[in-house]
């Protein structure tokens, strides 16, 4: 019998420590691990056995975190990284090389947009941004060098929700993997992309998974449902230069003894090994702690976010509110179709008047924190045009849904009346009666 999300977030990937009987996951704060003998060490390095070598590549504390998130997302395996940016980078460079391209939604976190547009270009990898989330605008950018389709479950900061079923159909039509950043859907609690045709999920564990603003981390989940040996991806179907000719598709593909885990295995033993964005065991421990209360927190986050969105929509000093849980949102239909437990825990709104009004409003908040994060138990706010999306041109900002006076609010789990009260007193400073 498959267990429910609320049970998996407590138990998946862990058994009580066999040596000490510890029920809590121990923190294995070590760099490296003893081999049983020389043959054992050689087998581990040759990928003939699974086991621990070095914490840059794997760690028992991190292993529990990886298995638990994979179970929550419905995947076959996970790989933790030092940040969400690192997870995204490893997932893409695991299948893309110089001369390749991928097609992406334009509605992305500013850091993702810069990584795609600037940094990946230095590797010879082209990110092609669709005009919007309409499938035909993705398809028009696909050619023989396209190796993936990329989107976010809930776009940041305009909260666009793609039609996943149609996007998955497009990916299958062109035999391409669909990669989804599921950060805003909270490790599968609000939405599981792998159940709607996605092949790989990435996310920042820093956000709701950790949930308390105290640790940075990222995670990749392999759906085990794409044929990486189809000839488009020579790094899987041809001999590996780094492992004496090992063919990942032969050993770790669907016909191998372990099932189709080749994507995550290669991301670990080549990507994580060589680029090095390993998560610390202590951060993995903190993220595991976060997972154990994830569903409870997200329920309150979503409840507060909808209530705040409805209140702001009626506020005389607010020009516009963006939240897919509102019936006025152009993304409401897709939110109802795909996000049955709630439309996320972040909203944005535009303060009436100038860009300076929005800045003054933020500077007069007392309880709500002005900082660059989401997914904390505390309510957070930021002005994207001068922070997260500052490096983008004005045109790029507008195409991403960022207007000068837009404010993004990651709603916490405080009492909703106290959140409203802080916002109201800040409005009174900007618009004195």
From TrEMBL:
One of its GO terms (molecular function) is pyridoxal phosphate binding. InterPro entries: Cys/Met-Metab_PyrdxlP-dep_enz, OAc-hSer/O-AcSer_sulfhydrylase, PyrdxlP-dep_Trfase, PyrdxlP-dep_Trfase_major, PyrdxlP-dep_Trfase_small. The modification N6-(pyridoxal phosphate)lysine is found at residue 207. GO terms for cellular component: cytoplasm. The keyword Transferase applies. Its cofactor is pyridoxal 5'-phosphate. Residues 1-23 are annotated as: Disordered. One of its GO terms (biological process) is cysteine biosynthetic process from serine. Keywords: Pyridoxal phosphate, Transferase. The keyword Lyase does not apply. It comes from the Bacteria. NCBIfam families: OAH_OAS_sulfhy. Belongs to the trans-sulfuration enzymes family. PANTHER family: HOMOCYSTEINE/CYSTEINE SYNTHASE, HOMOCYSTEINE_CYSTEINE SYNTHASE. This is O-acetylhomoserine aminocarboxypropyltransferase/cysteine synthase. It comes from Hanamia caeni.
């Amino acid at each position: 019998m498959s267990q429910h999300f609320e049970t998996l977030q407590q138990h998946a990937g862990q058994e009580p420590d066999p040596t000490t009987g510890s029920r809590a996951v121990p923190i294995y704060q070590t760099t490296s691990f003893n081999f049983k003998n020389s043959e054992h060490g050689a087998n581990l390095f040759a990928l003939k056995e699974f086991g621990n070598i070095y914490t840059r590549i794997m760690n028992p504390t991190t292993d529990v975190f990886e298995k638990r998130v994979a179970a929550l997302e419905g995947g076959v395996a996970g790989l933790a990284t030092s940040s969400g940016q690192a997870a995204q980078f490893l997932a893409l460079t695991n299948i893309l090389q110089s001369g390749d391209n991928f097609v992406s939604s334009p509605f992305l976190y500013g850091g993702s947009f810069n990584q795609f547009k600037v940094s990946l270009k230095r590797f010879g990898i082209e990110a092609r941004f669709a005009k919007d989330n309409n499938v035909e605008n993705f398809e028009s950018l696909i050619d023989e060098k396209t190796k993936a389709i990329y989107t976010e479950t809930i776009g940041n900061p305009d909260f666009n929700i793609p039609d996943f079923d149609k996007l998955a159909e497009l990916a299958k039509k062109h035999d391409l993997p669909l990669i989804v950043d599921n950060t805003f859907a909270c490790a599968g609690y609000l939405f599981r992309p792998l159940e709607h045709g996605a092949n790989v999920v990435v996310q920042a564990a820093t956000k709701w998974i950790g949930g308390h603003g105290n640790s940075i981390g990222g995670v990749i989940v392999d759906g085990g449902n794409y044929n990486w040996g189809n000839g488009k991806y020579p790094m899987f179907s041809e001999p590996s230069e780094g492992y004496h000719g090992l063919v990942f598709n032969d050993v770790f593909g669907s016909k191998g003894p372990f099932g189709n885990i080749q994507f995550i295995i290669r991301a670990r033993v080549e990507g994580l090994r060589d680029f090095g964005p390993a998560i610390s065991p202590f951060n993995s421990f903190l993220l595991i702690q976060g997972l154990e209360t994830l569903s409870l927190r997200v329920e309150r986050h979503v409840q507060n976010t909808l209530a705040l969105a409805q209140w702001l929509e009626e506020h005389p000093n607010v020009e516009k509110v963006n939240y897919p849980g509102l019936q006025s949102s152009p993304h409401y239909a897709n939110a109802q179709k795909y996000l049955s437990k709630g439309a996320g825990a972040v909203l944005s709104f535009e303060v009436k008047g100038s860009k300076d009004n929005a800045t003054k409003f933020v500077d007069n908040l007392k309880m709500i924190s002005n900082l660059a994060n989401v997914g904390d138990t505390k309510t957070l706010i930021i002005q994207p045009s001068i922070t997260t999306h500052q490096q983008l041109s004005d045109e790029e900002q507008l195409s991403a849904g960022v207007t000068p006076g837009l404010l993004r609010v990651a709603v916490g789990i405080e009492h909703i009346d106290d959140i409203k009260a802080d916002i109201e007193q800040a409005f009174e400073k900007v618009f004195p009666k």
